[in-house]
Amino acid sequence: MPRSLCIHGHFYQPPREDPWLDDILPEGSAAPAPDWNTRILRESYAPLGWARRLNREGRIGDILNCYEWTSFNAGPTLLRWMDRHAPDTLRRMVEGDRTSAARWGHGNAMAQVYHHVIMPLATPLDREVETAWAVADFMARFGRAPEGMWLPEAAVDTPTLETLAAAGIAFTVLAPRQARAVAALDGINQANAAWQPVHEGSLDIGLPYRAELPSGRSIDIFFYDGPISRAVAFEQLLRDGEIFWRRLADAACALPVPPGEGRGDDAGAPGNGDRLLAVCTDGETYGHHFTFGEMALAHVLAQGYAGRDGVALTNFAAFRHRNPPHMRVLLHEPSSWSCAHGVERWRSDCGCTDGGHPGWNQRWRGPLRQGLDAVKQGLDAHFAAAGAGLFRDPKAALLAYGQVLARSGDAPAREAFAAAHLAPGIAGRQADAAWKLLAMQEAGLASFASCAWFFDEISRIEPVNAMTYALRALDLCTATGGPDLLPHLAEHLAHAVSNKPEEGTGADILSRTVLPRRGTDASLVLQALWRLRAKHGLPAPGATATHAWPGAEVDVTLDAQDAPDTQDAQGMPDGTGNAPVTGTAALRLPLEAEGRTVRFIWHPPGPSTSARASRVTVRPATQPDAPATSLSVADLPLNARQALLLALLHGEERNQAPRRAALARQALALVDPWEEAQHDMPASHLWADLGPATGAGAGDGSPGVRPFRRRKPRQRNPQ
Known about the structure:
Layout: E1 3-11, H1 36-49, E2 51-54, E3 60-64, E4 71-74, H2 76-85, H3 87-104, E5 109-112, H4 124-142, E6 149-150, H5 158-166, E7 171-174, E8 179-184, E9 196-197, E10 209-212, E11 218-223, H6 226-234, H7 241-253, E12 275-282, H8 293-305, E13 311-313, H9 316-322, E14 327-331, H10 365-387, H11 394-405, H12 411-421, H13 428-446, H14 451-454, H15 461-479, H16 486-493, H17 506-514, H18 521-534, E15 544-549, E16 552-558, E17 581-588, E18 596-603, E19 615-620, E20 629-632, H19 638-669, H20 691-694
Parallel strand pairs: 1-4, 1-12, 1-13, 4-5, 5-6, 7-11
Antiparallel strand pairs: 2-3, 8-9, 8-14, 10-11, 15-16, 16-17, 17-18, 18-19, 19-20
Protein name: DUF3536 domain-containing protein
Pfam families: DUF3536, Glyco_hydro_57
Organism: Nitratidesulfovibrio liaohensis
């Protein structure tokens, strides 16, 4: 009997960008990488695109693009970041989908709900928007309409399935314990037409099922193998690729075949005897959770595409095409793959956590959910009221906005959207308000990314990011004439008590950690001045220099009469003196057609001024009598201060590179061949600074050298 194998990876990172700068600031917990996206890219996403297979001698015998042979979904918020920062890896994903479509007639890639929200807890409008944006992003990335869509945390109920089916989604994938009962489809094997209760141990996972919906639509559902998926994720099954293969092959061959199927007679259910073993885990399992896990996966995929043991690789869509459902299914509702209590993990203290702190509670989850729900209700009401005069059809515009998000920075896409959806005559500040309303809704949805509730503490990075996106949405709400909903959010968060006494409540975290993240004029100018100084790029007196983030640009012009009192080697001001620096700063923001200019006074750090005390004072350039706003480095949020630190270190590294290269050339010329039994350089720690400049031969005819420790010569057996 034929057996098919589908290994699925769920690749997802929440939106991590600072919503004012549209750039990820440092995340200390990801060190030594600057942020978690970068770290997991290096550990999982990139290695899976170029997975090594070793030969018998332990040398690399093959490089495999795992995306060509595995089913996968990648969250739009991750793909957007990869498009900017890891285009080569994203290209491997896209190539993998295209290659698999040419091979099997259906591509490996599945879509994923846009912001990874828990769909059964979302409003009908938010479910529809999340799905529409996901489809738009998938079509922009992969050049085709999605057949399947991954539900965040596999969280499902009937309204969620109705939303997917209405969007043209043909199938999704769930955990086996989410099935409640099965029955034969009408007109097929009527002897089994009655509903039969099932559980994880009794469900036949080898074929897809059809969920018939109240609307008359339907959607097909695959169920993965629970025990093997858990073994991959948590039980070290990836420690050996051959053991991994044997577990998969044995399980695939053991899948049951109903009586009569595959025998060419009419005795039982239709089918060709083919059965599918599906294994689903987070894609980050391969490499990030388990080092070299991508190599174990590559070994398994090589066995699968060779058809070893009668097991062949496929994907869900291709298998469904060959084996359409002949059984119906009823689901536990609502349910998910990571909470035994339905979807309570994302709204209550249900007991599901990562197990890191057994004495902690998660009673904070309820107030966080309630506060964000209340905020979103206010945002939706404001969008409908304000949008009525700005859009031809506010809901249609909101649903179509995903096409703009999928082509971030593409001016023609924005122009086409404006022509199709802005009301006639809308331009200038009214057009700015329309774009701000759409950005408000996007930030509001981003605050519901599921990881905010997944772990066990409200002061973690994930809930703080959720509050940050909510704050951005609230600021855009008031900027477009809407109500100030921040006190309402703080009122709810006051009931969200941290497990850490020093953190207080969610309201304290909001005030102490989140509010300083606001992208004010003073904050943007201070950060821009520091960034320019760090890379030795402050302008000459009377000249202009620019620092740009994806979401903001600041043009800095220094006054000629008040230049800094010290200069760098090129005669440019370096901002290290004690004298204040004055000038103007022009701010350009994507959501504002017209920029704004402020006057500033900057007190840069100097011999007698600490970096944290460095301060900027700003006021509108056109209103000299307006109140001034002052901000110090110490007032910036932690992640912004870390960004300044990294900019300072990288700038100094670049500035010192010529000196290190010259010193390396001189030092290498004095290095003689190593003596017998020598395995390190004298004072080898002094070579560390020169390491990047030494190379293998320094490029100038000097002798090659390995200035760092080398392996000791192998000694003879003393016997």
